[in-house]
Each structure stands twice: as C-alpha cells, then as structure tokens.
Amino acid sequence: MKKVLFATTAFAGLAIAGVASAQGIALFGDARLGLGYNIQNDGSTWLGDNGETTDDLRAVSRVRFGVNMTGETDSGITFGATIRADNASGGQGGTDGQTAGDVFVSGSWGTLTYGDTNAADEQWVGDVPGDFSLTGLGDRDETSFISNGGHFGNDYAGAFAANPAARPTVRYDFDVAGFGISASTNRDLDDIVVGTGYTADFGGGSWTIGLGYNDFTGFTSTTGVVYNDGKQWSAGLKAEYENFSFGATYVNADMDSTVAGSGDPKFQSLLVGGSFGFDAFTLGAFYGNILKAEGTLLDSSGTAIDLSDVDGDDTFAVTGQYDLGGGATVNGGVGQDYNGDTVGDFGITMAF
User: Fold this and answer.
1) pLDDT digits over 248-284, tens only?
2) pTM of the model
3) DSSP string, 92-143
4) Which SS3 state, helix, strand or coil, does residue 158 take?
5) What is the DSSP letter of 157?
6) Residue 260: CB partners within 8 Å, gap ≥ 6?
C-alpha cells in the first residue's frame, strides 16, 4: 500500500491568479582543468583491470553550462526552473520523470519544488564543509542519504545511498523566524521524508541544527544491491564564522532482512569537516567513518553481501583553494577513499 504523502498538502496554494508579469533567463557555467591521481574525470576512484588502484596520473577537465529561469505572477507568486545543458534530456522527463534540473513555485504559503532536488532530510541535515578539491574526490564529504538517489564514488561503502527510485523528488518547504520544516516524497509517492531545522546567531557566528527522517520502500541500488523497506534517521550541526566553519552529520539506517536468518541490515555513519580562510587562501579537511555495518544484502544475481566487511571503514581528505579573482580559483586535495586507496587532484576551476 502506498504511503501517499501529498494528499492535499500545498497544492491548494497553487491557485495562481493572473498571468506572469516579470520573467528572466540567466545563463551560468563552470569549467575545470588539471591532474587527477587515481581519479577519473568525474571524481570517482580509478580502478584498473584487476579492480585495484595503481599509481595512475591523468588529465581531467570538463565544461558545463545551464540556465536559470524565473518569473512572477501578478499576485506575487514566484516560479522558476533550472537545468544544465548536459542534463537536458533528464530535465525533459520521459517515462521515468524529471531526473535532472528542478522546477519550483513559491509564495507566502511556502515553496514547492519538483525534479532532481534534495529530499526533506538532506535539505536540513546536509553535508559537511571542507572539500575544496578539483573534482570532489568522489564527494565523500556528502552525507549518505538514501533519499538522495545518487552514488558516491565507486567504493562499496559509498554505495549505501545509491537509490535510483528516490528521484524525481517532490518537496515542500516552509520557513519562519529561523525555523524551517520540509516534507518530501518520490515520484511514486510511496516514500515519506521529513526534515526540520533551526538557525540562529551565537557567539558572532551562525549555527544550524537539522534533523531528518526517511521511511522508504524497497529498491535495487545502482550497484545491483536489493534493499527492502526501511527507515533512516539523520542529524546535523553546522556553524559558520567569518573565516571558519565546521560541521558534523550522523545517519542511521535500518532495513528489513533480505536473507532469512541474517538479521536486519543496518548501518551508521559519521562525517565531520571544517574550513579556515585567510587572505586568498582557504584550507579544508573532512573525515568519514562507517560506525556500524551489519546484516546481509543480496545483489541482483542473488549473491549475499556481508555488510560487516565495511564495518569501521573510513575516508578522509585535506584540501585547499586559492582565489585568483574573476571567478577562477586554484583547487586541490589529497585523501583516502573508503577502500583505503589514495586519491588526489590539482588544477584550476572557473565560474562564469
């Protein structure tokens, strides 16, 4: 039975009176070039024919551009959409729904967003600071939200959140006086995700606490692992000062057993990160640890995967950035993925 989240929700607020009175279209873009050590062009760990890293040094580069579109009705409701050119086919939707870009409408009643966007828990718990690398080094500073739908690198411990059924996402947000709450679901309206948070000034800086909950249905991950129904809880704490920021996130996922007698699969993970800036320099670092991983999952061939193999695995990186001005920065980082492989990159990023 579907756990339909949006029965009436904010759709009542979508009685948009009047026609659009103001519209705008703005292009944006970014590019990068440099070198990657054991890193592929997309930032994932390079694996040789034997499935293990070697001392691989290669050129990495890319260029992307997209468009932001905004407008406003005569009654004051704003609306808009964002899409990158390389994701244009995913923005069109097709039978799977909109898997790239996002579309929103917003008013005094809140904001409703569709498409390839954060679920409610990720919206408020988020990730940790500290990654100024050129390629992202597999984006291992990002919290493993099952609601995200993405895949972080190609090391197994990073595949916990590889849920292709999570997106497109439908999310409703409402903020007032530093307090916010969000609710979201997936295209099939059978996941229930909620998030909440509070931001306040303290000690000369801005502090934010966020909490998230995801009640999800079964899915097959992008790596072919079969997950049954389950729940994920998450929490995050962040602080930002003029030259310093830090953050920590924690997630706990508990799923129904997929193998008789194996026990319910579950994992817990912790991320911490921080950054410090001075003059044109910014330095950052992050650390992640699989605090607990137990139980058994099945891959698409029916082979059992013992999660305890990744229990205690960790990842870390030290990164830095130098601002050249005009939208160009020198970026680099070196670290270790969850498999214990050394990765690194160095080069120039450009924002247009």
Assistant:
1) 999 999 988 766 666 788 999 999 999 999 999 999 9
2) 0.88
3) H-GGG---SSEEEEEETTEEEEEES---HHHHHH---S----SS-TTTTTS-
4) helix
5) G
6) none
> 324 is in which domain, residue-wise?
23-351
Buried residues in 80-116 as b, exposed as e (16+ CB within 10 A): bbbbbeebeebbebeeebbbbbbbbbbbeebbbbbbb
pLDDT at residue number 62: 97
The domain tally of the chain equals 1
**Number of separate helices (H) and strands (E) present in the chain:** 2, 20
Mapped onto helix, strand or coil, the DSSP state of residue 332 is: strand
Tell me if 12 is assigned to some domain. no
The answer as to whether 18 is a domain residue is no
Phi, psi at 225, each rounded to 5°? -85, 135
What's the pLDDT tens digit per position in 89-109?
A: 999 988 888 989 999 999 999
Which of 71, 70, 69, 75 lies closest to 16, judged by CA?
Answer: 75
Asked whether 247 and 273 are in contact (CB, 8 A), the reply is yes
CB under 8 Å to 128, separation ≥6 — which residues?
141, 143, 238, 246, 247, 248, 249, 271, 272, 273, 274, 286
Beta strands 110-115; 102-107: pairing state: antiparallel
Residue 10 domain flag: no
DSSP code, position 188: T
